[in-house]
């Protein structure tokens, strides 16, 4: 039976789940794989913090470098997070001839090109299933299950915090700040929730998925990123009238050799399966040229789901210990956000007088934007009414130019709101 010695750096939430699985499922993994995964050492700066699992003292250390330099350790698992010391740990582990497993999406999205180049040069593997989707095996799906497909599109709900907030706003009619406070109270959102609510966490993850799908270098700096802080209960209600829900989607598509790479609030038809994914759950839609549309659903975070993905990576590395890592070197153009085409939802706060709709629609017409549906009702205290418009597909740059003109019209009292729409045109 093949024995694999493992060192874990980081004994926090995910580290604890990984340790539990390695210890409690060791016999099961032996039977299924013929591999004996041996936990040789766990490093963490704070070994006194209460955890719901205890380890013998000889397995614990405060010195991560002890793991990295140990010649008996085959796989180093990095679970400390961040993009500074974690990068040093991974690069040095590779230089010491060790395979690496990480859940660190920010590090891979921002420094993955350097890290994978090092691994490729040394013939070592990097497992990163846990970096996207928690317990959803989306990395394996793209690398293995759909390997015969050209990837046409990937979009998904890949941040549970924002999905929880939007779910609360949708079903309870509460505003963003109240939903955020509840998410923080329940532990779904950090005290500083910026990475989640501004879409940055989702941008890290879609960077990784796009690199896998298209073989391109990690391109985090090219991701268009927009969060959910400006979404209102009013927009959610209007979306429902049109037959849509609002979700924070991470999207990558390829068309004519150009790749779209974007994160933003998106209106999705209510009958789509991804619209029915609520709470802290994640869902990722993948379209391949052979398989068609597929959807992957599950818990996107948490100690045990993410730990499960970490252990799966260890097993994969152990099975193919001498295989080379993925080479992200394909050359594609990232399509500028202003060149993407989408349907759009607009909400204008317009004065209630004749000719307003014709003025706005006239500007749209001048910029090649065609109106699909209109809703107008309910006066505000200021004497203005919300005028809501859904368009057919238009180019982003035309939309931005049209809005710049419309916001200057004397009949429009506030800055206009717009949300991109995914789905088939009616």
From TrEMBL:
Needed cofactors, names only, are: a metal cation
Which SUPFAM superfamilies is this protein grouped with? ACT-like, Glyceraldehyde-3-phosphate dehydrogenase-like, C-terminal domain, NAD(P)-binding Rossmann-fold domains
Domain of life here? Bacteria
Reactions performed catalytically: L-homoserine + NADP(+) = L-aspartate 4-semialdehyde + NADPH + H(+)
**Which residues are recorded as binding NADPH?**
105
UniProt enzyme class: oxidoreductase
Could you tell me the keywords of this UniProt record? Amino-acid biosynthesis, Metal-binding, Methionine biosynthesis, NAD, NADP, Oxidoreductase, Threonine biosynthesis
**GO molecular function annotations of the record:** homoserine dehydrogenase activity; metal ion binding; NADP binding
Tell me which residues this entry annotates as catalytic. 205
**Where does this protein act, in terms of pathway?**
Amino-acid biosynthesis; L-threonine biosynthesis; L-threonine from L-aspartate: step 3/5; Amino-acid biosynthesis; L-methionine biosynthesis via de novo pathway; L-homoserine from L-aspartate: step 3/3
GO term, biological process aspect, one: methionine biosynthetic process
Q: Which residues bind L-homoserine?
A: 190
Q: In which residues is NADP(+) bound?
A: 9-16
Q: Which residues form the ACT domain?
A: 345-420
User: EC number(s) for this protein?
Assistant: 1.1.1.3
Signal peptide segment: none
Pfam family of the protein (one):
ACT
The cross-references to Gene3D superfamilies, in alphabetical order and at most eight, read: 3.30.70.260, Dihydrodipicolinate Reductase, domain 2, NAD(P)-binding Rossmann-like Domain
Query: Which InterPro entries does the record cross-reference, listed alphabetically?
Result: ACT-like_dom_sf, ACT_dom, Asp/hSer_DH_NAD-bd, HDH, HDH_cat, HDH_CS, NAD(P)-bd_dom_sf
Tell me its family: Belongs to the homoserine dehydrogenase family.
What name does UniProt use for this protein?
A: Homoserine dehydrogenase
Please spell out the taxonomic lineage of the organism that makes this protein: Bacteria, Pseudomonadati, Nitrospirota, Thermodesulfovibrionia, Thermodesulfovibrionales
């Amino acid at each position: 039976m093949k024995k694999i010695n493992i060192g874990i750096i980081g004994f926090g939430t995910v580290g604890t789940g990984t340790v539990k699985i390695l210890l409690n499922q060791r016999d099961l993994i032996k039977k299924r794989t013929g591999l004996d995964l041996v936990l040789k050492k766990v490093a963490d700066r704070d070994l006194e913090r209460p955890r719901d699992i205890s380890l013998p003292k000889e397995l614990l250390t405060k010195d991560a470098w002890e793991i990295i330099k140990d010649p008996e350790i085959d796989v180093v698992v990095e679970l400390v997070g961040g993009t500074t010391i974690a990068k040093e740990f991974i690069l040095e582990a590779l230089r010491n001839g060790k395979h690496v497993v990480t859940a660190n999406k920010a590090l891979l999205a921002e420094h993955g090109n350097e890290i994978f180049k090092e691994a490729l040069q040394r013939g070592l593997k990097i497992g990163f299933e846990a970096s996207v989707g928690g317990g959803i095996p989306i990395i394996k799906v793209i690398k293995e299950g759909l390997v015969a497909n050209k990837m046409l599109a990937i979009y998904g709900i890949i941040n549970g915090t924002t999905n929880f907030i939007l779910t609360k706003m949708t079903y309870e009619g509460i505003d963003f700040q109240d939903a955020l406070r509840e998410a923080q109270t329940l532990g779904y959102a950090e005290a500083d929730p910026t990475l989640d609510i501004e879409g940055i966490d989702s941008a890290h993850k879609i960077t990784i998925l796009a690199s896998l799908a298209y073989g391109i270098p990690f391109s985090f700096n090219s991701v268009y990123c927009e969060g959910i802080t400006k979404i209102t209960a009013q927009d959610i209600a209007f979306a429902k009238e049109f037959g849509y829900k609002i979700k924070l989607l991470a999207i990558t598509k390829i068309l004519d050799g150009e790749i779209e790479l974007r994160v933003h609030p998106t209106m999705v038809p209510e009958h789509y399966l991804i619209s029915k994914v609520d709470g802290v759950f994640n869902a990722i839609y993948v379209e391949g040229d052979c398989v068609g549309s597929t959807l992957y659903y599950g818990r996107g975070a948490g100690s045990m789901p993410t730990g499960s993905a970490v252990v799966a990576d260890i097993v994969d590395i152990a099975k193919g210990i001498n295989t080379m890592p993925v080479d992200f070197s394909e050359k594609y153009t990232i399509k500028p956000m202003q060149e993407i085409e989408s349907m759009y939802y607009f909400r204008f706060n317009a004065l209630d007088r004749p000719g307003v709709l014709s003025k706005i629609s006239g500007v749209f017409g001048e910029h090649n934007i065609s109106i699909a549906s209109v809703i107008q009702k309910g006066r505000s205290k200021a004497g203005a009414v919300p005028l809501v418009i859904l368009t057919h597909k238009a180019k982003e740059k035309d939309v931005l130019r049209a809005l710049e003109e419309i916001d200057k019209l004397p009949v429009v009292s506030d800055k206009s709101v717009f949300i991109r729409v995914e789905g088939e045109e009616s």
